[in-house]
């Protein structure tokens, strides 16, 4: 009886962990991402496109985490969008946990790069790291294909916030 209870408990915990992982690092389509950005009102979204295997991407992640933390009382949302293939979902989740990332992390669930790259930005060659700044109420959509240091990231964010003030 005791063994059955322990097994049931273990299954419940594992099921909860899987659900939490799915919620913590969801697979999203480009349409779902665009809907989130378009429904953001006055929120400035900073969408960082990255992959676990991209060293410059990983190196700049703390700057995005810091930006969100320092401007937590402002209408700002940093979203990390992983370009790792959906089949590496568990590896991305483990990476997120190991790095202790606090911002939202999504995996782009799109198969055809030739289709989604120009939809994100006509300027995008497909190289990463890349970042998209969006504020729909200000009509802002700025794409940047570069690695950021904190000072440049903060300057770019503040330039958007200060528009039309």
UniProtKB/TrEMBL annotation:
Using the record, list the residue span of the signal peptide; answer none if the entry has no such feature: 1-21
- Which ranges carry the Thioredoxin domain? 7-159
Q: Name one GO cellular component term.
A: cell envelope
Keywords (A to Z) from UniProt? Cytochrome c-type biogenesis, Isomerase, Redox-active center, Signal
Q: Where in the cell is it found?
A: Cell envelope
List GO BP terms, alphabetically. Answer: cytochrome complex assembly
Q: Which Gene3D superfamilies match?
A: Glutaredoxin (3.40.30.10)
Instruction: Report the InterPro entries cross-referenced here.
Output: Redoxin, Thioredoxin-like_sf, Thioredoxin_CS, Thioredoxin_domain, Thioredoxin_ResA/DsbE_sf
Q: Transcription regulation among the record's keywords?
A: no
Please give the Pfam families that the UniProt record associates with this protein: Redoxin (PF08534)
Show the GO MF annotations: isomerase activity; oxidoreductase activity
PANTHER family found in the cross-reference section: THIOL:DISULFIDE INTERCHANGE PROTEIN DSBE, THIOREDOXIN-LIKE PROTEIN HI_1115
What protein does this entry describe?
Answer: Thiol-disulfide isomerase or thioredoxin
Q: Which organism is it from?
A: Parapedobacter luteus
């Amino acid at each position: 009886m005791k063994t059955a209870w322990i097994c049931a408990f273990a299954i419940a915990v594992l099921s909860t962990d899987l659900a939490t992982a799915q919620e913590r690092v969801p697979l999203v389509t480009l349409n779902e991402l665009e809907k989130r950005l378009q429904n953001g009102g006055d929120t400035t979204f900073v969408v960082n496109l990255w992959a676990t295997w991209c060293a410059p991407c990983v190196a700049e992640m703390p700057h995005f985490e810091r930006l969100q933390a320092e401007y937590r009382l402002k209408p700002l949302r940093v979203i990390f969008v992983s370009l790792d293939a959906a089949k590496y979902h568990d590896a991305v989740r483990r990476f997120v946990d190991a790095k202790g990332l606090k911002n939202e992390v999504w995996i782009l669930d799109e198969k055809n790069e030739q289709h989604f790259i120009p939809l994100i930005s006509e300027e995008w060659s497909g190289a990463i790291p890349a970042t998209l700044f969006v504020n729909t109420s200000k009509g802002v959509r700025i794409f940047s294909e570069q690695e950021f240091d904190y000072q440049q990231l903060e300057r770019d964010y503040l330039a958007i916030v200060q528009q039309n003030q």
